[in-house]
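Annex B, item 7. Sequence and structure tokens for protein A, then protein B.
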Amino acid sequence: MLEDGDDGSRLLLESWLDLADAIESQPQLRAVFFDPVTGLPTTPLLFPRISSLLEDRGEVSLLCVNVVRYSRIEEIYGWKVFDGVMRQVAEVLDQITGETLRDSDVIAELMNSGNAFVVVLSPPRMTACIDPSSRDEIARRVESRLREELALRFEPALFKKFGCYVGASTICRDEEVRLERLVFEGLQEALADSHNRVSEDASQRETALRAILQAEEIHTLMHPIFDLSSMEPVGYEALSRGPEGSEFEHPDKLFSVAYGADLVTRLERVCRKRALEMAVGMPEGRLLFLNIEPGAVSDPRLRDAVTLAMMAENPLAPGSVVLEITEREAIADFAAFRATLDYVRALGFSVAVDDAGSGFGSLQCLAEVRPEWLKIDQSLVRGCDSDEVRHTMIESLVTAAARLGSKVIAEGIQTVEELQTLRSVCVGYGQGFLLAMPAPEFPEDEDLPARQYVKG
């Protein structure tokens, strides 16, 4: 890419347009200008195509496919998994070329090992210039197809860690401005437009969530919790769900959007209301486990909500309610949190710590809260019969819980082997699809699959 000048100095190529010839004559440059992860060309190699379109049409339209929140993938899974995500995005872009995109559209990486792609759109067939609304419609279709295809290629936990947003811009020929500057400004505009899409998407989700909360379109499923020896149900965890078939049906989406929109307290109140309404029909002598965020423990309406339930036809006493503290949000002030819990316990509630073993704050939460119940996260339960590390970690949690006087519940039991292992390390209680599925009503005890696994 460098050549000697008459004065012995080393001069850069005069224009990016010389790159194609340079790469052909110097194959080692290919490693510089083609992305090593996806194999796609990078932006400089688009210049000849863009220059030609500007010369012929006076304008050229670009799309920027932006993979956002990618740092979460690298933090949790490592850079190799992120590289895999980028390869899959590149494959989907290639797959939809000839369908959503035209065969003559050109795809490249914005930069080597980056997190964005560039698409140079071929010119319209029927008009000299592309209409901005048509260009933006192409961007929306590409964005939609990407999400549909990627959702099929990744497990849900990974797919939810990132997002793909598509921005658009149009470059117009200007003889007073260098081509490189025109392209740079066009790419910046398309990238900014993709970031605007992130904000628009968040705004639309917030509006949809507000509508759900206004209409109280939350329903509750009850998931039985069993004594692992007798397989008798001791209680039920109330699981909140959004409108069926919507993106808010799963609680992770409900609460992630609620946190971003500062709507967690409102969402918690609707979820509690629905759960307590359903709990009126709970069999006598059973416990109701209510999932709550740490901040909701101090919600003044929590006491009022339970008081209303006690006035119902089948009174629900606070002693029948276990407040299950989730850790979607970090607990910043444990001293204040403990004081609130003391107040809650004085009312008669019990406390459970959820997802033990899944977060950085779980052990501190256990030490500070000293809960009546400890729930071992399903990520530890899964495969504990064959994974010595998981087996050991569960044993340690059981020992710690025993010293604190906490009862242990294992979440997510799916196999007989997991059940047998949990019993062998003295886990007293459990729930999972092996034992019973979540249901929109309280099941009859004799109909529960768990009965076939009574400890002999």
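Protein B:
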Amino acid sequence: MADAASPRPNPRKTREGIVTSASMEKTVVVEVTDRVRHARYGKTVQRSKKLYAHHEPGDLKVGDRVRVQETRPLSKLKRWRVTDVIERAR
């Protein structure tokens, strides 16, 4: 059993994406694009996914590049939270 003083391992997923909507209170929509190889043809294809992320300060704008981390369910659709802003939109 792990020692009570040692921190538990953090297997939570992290993703980087671009804010596509910031019109809700404390919630932003982040589009995450992954490059994957096609199973049969081997060609690299882009797959994108929209994630609903929690952001308490509410100072994000559309176009900001952010890092999100998986968290417990916060609402019907929200399972991510913004950990840090990588780049602000110009």
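Comment on protein B: The mean pLDDT is 93.
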